[in-house]
Amino acid sequence: xxxxxILIEYDGRPYAGWQKQANAPSVQQTIEExxxxxxxxxxxxxxAGRTDTGVxxxxxxxxxxxxxxxxxxxxxxxxxxxxxxxxxxxxxxxPVPDAFDARRSATRRHYLYRxxxxxxxxALDIDRVWDVRRRLDIEAMRAGAAHxxxxxxxxxxxxxxxxxxxxxxxxDAIAIRRQGDEVLFDVSARSFLHNQVRSMVGTLKKVGxxxxxxxxxxxxxxxxxxxxxxxxxxPGGLYLVRVDYGAAPGSKPEEAVDDLAEDEA
Length: 265
Prior knowledge:
Helix content is about 20%, strand content about 30%. It has helices spanning about 25-40, 70-85, 140-145, 195-210, 215-225, and strands at about 5-10, 45, 55-65, 90-95, 105-115, 130, 150-155, 170-180, 180-190, 240-245.
């Protein structure tokens, strides 16, 4: 059966995450229903990352099989017509080889986390940023984040519900930058543990507030204990920005595709 890849943008607020669930709306189910309405086929949509309740995406990737030959622009336009008024957009669609798998073929995932740290509340970005209302120390957070980059046991920053077989991951980068009243965290790795990004951001916020020294982040990581973690940042500030495919230098063998089930959600 021909296989198609789609690039997806969505507002995660109305959904109980990406993955289809029995008693709550999900992004996956909403798109599958749109595929059925335009094609009459009950396709199964596979995604590159299982974003959690309230998490957004600018560049989620999915794939599904569909009988017949379809142009990418026809699939894009038909899906967008069927998805209205849901806050989901199909940015692009294209046919791909049968070997392509949105999750297993991915070599790197890129997330953005947004904090607004001005005194006034974020009136236009409610549930799209973490509204902390106090100025954060960027340099201190960068010093703390340096302890997290590399190949580590991330048990401290792993949800108790995480189903990944191993807590060992390689964090390729965590860059922290200021854009006006926003503090932006750009985080990249082949795969993440459940809640890893939000746990790291919540911990680094404590450093930015001056409540923890930067070296406390390294101590928390070394503790390999969930109790050593700072607060988990709320889901509304998190965005799946991009998924890379193709060769990824420096990948570790223990991060094989079988352990990608719990991408940051």
